[in-house]
Automatic annotation (TrEMBL):
Belongs to the acyl-ACP thioesterase family. Residues 1-124 form the Acyl-ACP-thioesterase N-terminal domain. Residues 1-58 are annotated as: Disordered. Residues 135-279 form the Acyl-ACP thioesterase N-terminal hotdog domain. The lineage of its organism: Eukaryota, Viridiplantae, Streptophyta, Embryophyta, Tracheophyta. It comes from the Eukaryota. It is an enzyme of class 3 (hydrolase). This is Acyl-[acyl-carrier-protein] hydrolase. Residues 1-10, 27-41 have a biased composition (Polar residues).
Length: 420
């Protein structure tokens, strides 16, 4: 019965024909839904669309809605009135059609070969980076966020350094050389070797900014970071970076670094094994450093030669990387802890040279020392160019990082109120 009702909703059952003598079928008579007897034949004649009354436990029962099927001689069939509701389309059928088209298009999309023919054609729709220039240079874009800026709404030096580190790791990953370590290749992972930076040189021509266009809309600059690697001596690797403004192409930052291998278990420096050399040499670029090396010797500071000292610096758990030592970007923040506040407010860091001499762990306690040269300490606010010498050391005096920074006057900018 359910099937019959469902079928009738799509294929309506025509009304029973009227008696030519004008007599209609009566309710309760043997002529039920078009089923009747013919006196001349003495046998039952089944008319089209006839339905037999259902039985339950051998007893005949009335068919729900049977009264509607029986037409009297006064009744005539009329079409349903046209209303807004019954003129609406069948949304379920429309949705099924759209879903079918979408699944078919998705299947065709997956079957197509979208692998680029050249590495410089790889698109980067999600900002994950791509390989350019014959597969030797890695490029990635970053948008400056509100939490990456300082009081002057410019990106901090730590933000710039984090972008450099991120592109370096993604470069190794995109080349298929990322093992289970922090930038280690598969062969390095087998031999418990990791990369450690020994020297970093950075020149910042202009810092990207984050601006508030109105009380509702904000905008952060988008920077484009290129990085590549080259050989440095017999047992080292040089990594260079070039940071540009993504819209104008203006060069913002240039950086160069030297890396060596260290045994993760013994914490001692190691030569590059031939197996590892075979992995990384195909990606070396035969080019000069993006920055000319600053050959000036970095001065060793002590309590007598330092103008500012900050003690009691300890790493937090979040400062450790996966190799269980302090991330090299954190050292930069510690170095600037002892920089004079007046200089930080009125000067901007334009260049930095660092020599990493020792690692430190989560239980280390450090001191940051800074000596100012090129001007009187009392006139830092009016000085044009300032040079500082830095030292980060453990409490027992062991050197962790030596550094030199150069500063220049900041460009006046509009001051915005703090949003609450």
């Amino acid at each position: 019965m359910v099937a019959t009702s469902a079928t009738s909703s799509f294929f309506p059952v025509p009304s029973p024909s009227l008696d030519p003598n004008g007599k209609g079928n009566k309710v309760g008579s043997t002529n039920f839904a078009g089923l009747g007897s013919t006196p001349n034949s003495g046998r039952m004649k089944v008319k089209p669309n006839a339905q037999a009354p259902p039985k339950i436990n051998g007893k005949k029962v009335g068919l729900p809605g049977s009264v509607e099927l029986l037409k009297t001689d006064t009744e005539t069939s009329h079409p349903a009135p046209r209303t807004f509701i019954n003129q609406l389309p069948d949304w379920s059928m429309l949705l099924a059609a759209i879903t079918t088209i979408f699944l078919a298009a998705e299947k065709q999309w997956m079957m197509l070969d979208w692998k680029p023919r050249r590495s410089d054609m790889i698109m980067d729709p999600f900002g994950l980076g791509r390989i350019v220039q014959d597969g030797l240079v890695f490029r990635q874009n970053f948008s400056i966020r509100s939490y990456e800026i300082g009081a002057d709404r410019s990106a901090s030096i730590e933000t710039v350094m984090n972008h450099l580190q991120e592109t370096a790791l993604n470069h190794v990953k995109s080349a298929g050389l990322l093992g289970d370590g922090f930038g280690s290749t598969p062969e390095m992972f087998k031999k418990n070797l990791i990369w450690v930076v020994t020297r970093m040189q950075v020149v910042v021509d202009k810092y990207p900014t984050w601006s508030m266009l109105s009380l509702v809309f904000t905008r952060g600059d988008v920077v484009e970071v290129d990085t590549w690697v080259s050989q440095s001596g017999k047992n080292g690797m040089r990594r260079d970076w070039l940071v540009r403004d993504c819209n104008s192409g203006e060069i913002l930052t240039r950086a160069s670094s030297v890396w060596v291998m260290m045994n993760k278990l013994t914490r001692r420096l190691s030569k590059i094994p031939e197996e590892v050399r075979g992995e990384i040499e195909p990606y070396f670029v035969n080019s000069d450093p993006v920055l000319a090396e600053d050959g000036r010797k970095l001065t060793k500071l002590d309590d007598k030669t330092a103008d500012y000292v900050r003690s009691g610096l300890t790493p937090r758990w979040s400062d450790l990387d996966v190799n269980q030592h302090v991330n090299n970007v954190k050292y930069i923040g510690w170095i600037l802890e002892s920089a004079p506040v007046g200089m930080m407010e009125r000067q901007k860091l334009k260049s930095m040279t660092l020599e990493y001499r020792r690692e430190c762990g989560r239980d280390s306690v450090l001191q940051s020392l800074t000596a100012v040269s090129g001007c009187d300490v009392g006139n830092l606010g009016t000085a044009g160019e300032v040079e500082c010498q830095h030292l980060l050391r453990l409490q027992d005096g062991a050197e962790v990082v030596r550094g030199r920074t150069e500063w220049s006057c900041k460009t006046p900018t509009t001051t915005w109120g703090t949003a609450t």
